[in-house]
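Continuing from the previous page...

OK, I double-checked the sequence for Cytochrome c oxidase subunit 1 against my notes and this is the correct one:
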Amino acid sequence: LDHKRVGFIYLVLGVWAGFLGLSLSMLIRLNFVEPYYNIIAPEVYNYVVTIHGVTMLFFFLMPILIGGFGNYLLPILLGIADLNLPRLNALSAWLVLPASICLSISMFLGAGVGWTFYPPLSGGDYSTGQGVDFLMFSLHLAGISSIFSSLNFICTIYSSVN
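Thanks. Re-ran it with the corrected sequence; updated structure tokens here:
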């Protein structure tokens, strides 16, 4: 895959995550329309806030800004045909998909730890089920994807300058 297609994959996955985050944000806001009128249950509210924060930061902003625009614009700005490690580049893009699937699964398993993941709420005493585990695994996959992209960008910039 060339850098433009990989950038497009990042953009599509980021826009999909943006729609998910936007719908969760609207659900949060609809919950506050009237006092004592809950669209979602109070115990589910923390899950929705957690998934909204993680989705918007790690699956909307980062894939679009770093993955999408970085993959598309960096070779054009450097005047080269493609990035140095195209297979690693494709792998980094395709790791975002299982990461976002694990994120979606964690919402249904109950991962209401907040987007900061502070230890009292993310520990075994306060988090029931496997939701936090899926949430952490999705962030690890997204982090590995980001590391692969960063390594590819660094290698490409270094080799084009020298």
